[in-house]
Amino acid sequence: MIKLLHIENIAVVEKVDIEFEPGLNVLTGETGAGKSIVIDALSAITGGRTSRDIIRTGAEFASVTAVFSGVGNESWFEENCVEPDDGGDVFITRRISADGKSVCRVNGAPVGTTQLRELGVGLLDVHGQNDGRKILDESTHREYLDTFGGNESTLAEYRETYKKLTAKEADIEKLTMDEGEKERRIDTLKYQIEEIARAGIKIGEHAELSSKREMLINASKLKDAIEAAFEAMYGADNSAGAVALIAQAQSRLDYAARYSENLNTIKDRLIDLHYTAQDISDELRDFREMLDFSPGELDELESRLDTLKRIIRKYGSEEGAVEHLENSKSELSGIEDSAGRLEKLTTELEACVQEAVNKAKDLTEKRKAAAAMLQKRVMDELSQLNMPDVEFLVEFAAVPDKYGVGAWGSDDVRFLMSANAGEKPGRISRIASGGELARIMLALKNVLTGEKDTGSMVFDEIDSGVSGIAAQRVGEKLSKLAQQRQVLCVTHLPQIAVMADAHFEVRKSAEAGRTYTYVGKLTFEGRKKEIARLSGGENITGTTLTSAAEQLDAAEKYKRELREES
After folding, report:
1. What is the pLDDT confidence band of residue 407, given thresholds at 50, 70 and 90?
2. Inter-residue contact 154 to 368 (CB < 8 Å)
3. At what angle are helices 542-565 and 524-536 packed, to 10 degrees?
4. What are phi and psi of 465, to 5 degrees?
5. pTM, full prediction
6. CB 456 within 8 A of CB 125
7. CB 442 within 8 Å of CB 462
8. Is 385 helix (H, G, I), strand (E, B) or coil?
9. What angle do CA 128, 101, 94 make, to 5 degrees?
10. 321 Cβ contact list (under 8 Å, min separation 6)
11. Which letter does DSSP use for residue 375 in this model?
12. Radius of gyration over alpha carbons of the chain, in Å?
C-alpha cells in the first residue's frame, strides 16, 4: 500500500504531503481544485508519461516522492540491483527538470522509467474516469476475457503457430509471382551476381589499396626520406653512420671496462643499442626496396580502386556486396527451383494450418469456459451495484479470416448486455448509459482483479454518471473492495465519500496573486461539512449537516457489519 505521497511544484501545487491509510481513501473537492494532480502524481511515480509542462510556473523542477509498504517483488530488486530498505518500505522519487529530463530513484538508486513502470505495475492499479469508455471498444473484449480466463500462455503458443503460418504464406507468395515478373527478377539477380563476382571483392581491400595509393603518389618523397634515414644509420661513402659510431663507442668502452667494473652496465646497454640500431637499419633497407614500383602499377591500382568504389557505392560496403552476392545466389536458386519448392511449402503450409486450427480450437474451448464464469461473476457484481435485472453475455463469432483462424485465434468476442428485464441483449455501446458504463467497468475491474496482487487500486471519478441508490451501491462496493486492499478514490458523490476510512479535502485558494492547492485530512466535523457541500452545494444549513452526520453514521454501521462478516 502507499503510505505517503509528497508532491512539489506540479501545476498549482507548491508543496503537499498526503499520508494515506489502509482501506478506502477518498479525495473530494470543487471541480478544478486539483484532484487530478494527485492522480497525475501517482501515475508519474509509477513510470507514467510526464512532460515539463506540469512544472509550476516560476519553478525550476517538479518532483513526486512516494513511500510504499508491503511491496514484495524481490525479483525486480535483484534484477535491477536495487537494495531493499531495512524497514521493508520502498521509497520512490521522480524529478522532472525544466529542460524536460526526468530522474527516477528507487531506494536512492537511479532507475529508468521503463524499470519504474515494471515495478509500478504491482504498486498501483489506476482506473481513470475514461476507463468506462474503453469497454465500448469491442476490440478489447477478447483481451478482457483472456485476462480473466488466464489464457495468456495458450494464446502465446497459438500466436507462435500463426506466425509460422503467415511466414509460409509469404514464402509461397514470393514463389507464385507471374512469369514476366519472375524473368525480370532472374535477369536482375544474374546481372548483380556476375557484377559482384567479376569484381572479386575481398573484405578490407579498398582500405588497403587506398593506403598503398597514397604511398605510390608520394613514393619519390618517401624514398628520399628513407634513403637519408638509412645513410644516417648505416653511413655513406664519406661518412660513418650511427651503427658504426655506436660500434666504435662499444670498442672504446670495452677497453675502458678493464679498469673500472662500474662501466660494465653501460657497456651492456651500448651492446643492446648496437643491435637495435642494426635492426632499424635492416628494416629501413627492406622498406626502401619496397618502394621500387613499376611504372604502370599506379594506373592499375587506380583502376582497381574505381571498380571497388563503384561496387561499394551500389551495395553500401564490401561486406554488403559479399552478403548481397550470397543472398542473390540463394534467391536465384530458389526461383529456378520454384516448382519443387512451391510443392514443399504448400505441404508445410497445410501442416501449419492444421496445427493453428487445433490450437485455436483449444483456445476457444478455454475462452468459452471462462466466458460462462465471467458472465456469472459480472452479473453478481452488477446486482450488488443496483443493476439486478441486467443480463451480461459474452458472444462468440467465427473470424472471417482465411482458414477460419486469425492473429488471435478463431474467435471474435464481444460483450452484450440488457439493462432491463425483458429486453434482448445488445451491444453495450448502444444500450448502456454513462452511469451503467461506470458500474459495468467497476464490476469488470473487480472481477478481473480478483485475488491478484495488483497493489493499491486507484479510481479517478469512475462514478461518473451515477447517482442516487446506484451511487450508494458503488460506494458500498468500493468499501467491500477496500476490505482486501487499499483503495484510493476521487469522487464528487456524497454516497461514496461517506464510505471513506480516510477522507481528504482538496481545495484551491489565491494568495498574493498566485494560486495554491492544499490537501488535508478531514476530521469528523470537517467530513460533515464536506458531505453537506457535496449534497447541497455552498448552502450548508443545520439540516444538511444533520443529514450528513446521519449518512456518516449509516456508513460506519455498514462498514462495521462488513468487518464482522469477514
Report:
1. very high
2. no
3. 110
4. 85, 5
5. 0.61
6. yes
7. yes
8. coil
9. 55
10. 196, 199, 201, 311, 312, 314, 315
11. H
12. 40
